[in-house]
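User: I'm curious whether this sequence folds into something compact or stays loose and floppy. Could you predict its structure so I can see for myself?
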Amino acid sequence: MYTKTKPNHFDVATEIYEYMRYEYKFVCHKGMDLDKCISTLTKKLQRLKDHEVFLWGQALVEIAKTHSDNAPTPVEIIRAIQRESKHFDSALSERPDIAQKIVEKVYVDYEALWRSADDKQKFRFFIDHKFCDVPPFVRYWFVKYNRQHRGWTAHESNMMTGFWKTPFIAAHSGALAKQQYEILDYFRERTND
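Assistant: Here's the prediction. I'll summarize afterward.
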């Protein structure tokens, strides 16, 4: 399914705070509740361009490098997204040929694919789609779904997301195929138990 979609700002804000729940001791600052933070962030995300909103994952990674126990405020999140957007825009301005290819590139909406998938398709999601192409928030949903519905550990979910990962540097197709068979055999044996 190939689509060009507008981001759902409320869902993005909710996912940002869901992600930060696991990263920080204190998600909301003193005097604020979670719902208020999400609604504030939603309003601020609506002011950004669509392509900027999709950079929220990279922005949170940059924020995390500060090593704080407190989660960033909505204003700090927006500033981080804008900084990431400036890096992205400056890189594109230096290479207009790449910018044209990015614009012409067919966009796969992995979020829509995940949301519309049934249980079997969710099991096969990283067999059908390479890890490096799928956005981080869909990988997060994959781990969370498998923990809840299949009882998988985080290690087992990472095994499946790494289905197309090369087992070692300079691995040939035979080593990759062997690793893929081992992953599939592991999950076949796990379902037989």
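Summary: Residues 164 and 187 are 16 Å apart (CA to CA). The chain has twelve helices and no strands.
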